[in-house]
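Sorry to interrupt, but I need a hand with the structure work. Go ahead and set the record down below:
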Amino acid sequence: MTRIAVLLGGISAEREVSLRSGAQVIAALRTAGFEVTPIEVTEDLGAVIAALNPRPDAVFNALHGRFGEDGSIQGVLDYLGIPYTHSGVRASALAMDKAAAKAVFAHAGLPVAPHRIIDIAELADHDPLPPPYVVKPVNEGSSVGVHIVKPGDNDGAAIAQSWRFGPAMVEQYIPGRELTVGVLEDRALAVTEILPAEKFYDYHAKYADGGSRHMVPAELPPAITQQAKDIALAAHRALGCRGATRADLRYDDVSGRLVLLEVNTQPGMTPVSLLPEQAAYAGMDFPALCTWMVERAACRV
């Protein structure tokens, strides 16, 4: 396997993140000795398919958000018979749909927070859950559109008026610490604690320079570290994921409660991203991580 096409950009709210991820991946794969063809994805799907001719040995999917990690482009690549990195159609679609993913997690016995799917207009009238609670899009990533509503806030009408993401999930707010665990197939890498510089780990905190600090490994009781790794690996398996994923969790160190929030099937690959940081901690540099991913590329799985 020597010829790799890298898909980057896309048409979701996370396009800029994908462009940054893709640029890093392209450089890393070239360093590792692969022949790399960048393909910037736009609304023109026909142009994407045309750019995949001549057919590469594999596709590195560096897309984020809707149409890039929700099973859509995975289905196209399956149809074309081109192996690609990360999870397949079913796992990608399940993970991207927060309601479906939480149903899978609950069925697998994994800890999830109480939640509801609402019409966003409901927020203008009353609190759909006792505050504090989190409002988030059902089908977006990178904390796009996420709001925390605290007791006494009067933000519901403003959130509803500016909402542009379709169905919304409201979820009980879990106080405490923000944790994340990277998984490479059957191995949980490490537990990172995320310390945002501002109010919470939103889009700005994730991708801006200085937006957050990452503590790898997190300073946790050994039993909590192991539990977080076990939950991440179990969630990866429950969804039917392959390759690399990253599970986000909350840990309330007062009550000892550890809760699974979601699984990201297309973890960020930017200079400040969490999965590459954990891989480096485990002894795998960035070119080696990207190589590991393309070596496990597959389709129709």
About this structure: Residues 17 and 217 are 25 Å apart (CA to CA). The chain has three domains: 3-86, 95-112+175-283, 115-172. Residues 201-207 have pLDDT under 50 and may be disordered. The two ends are 19 Å apart (CA to CA).
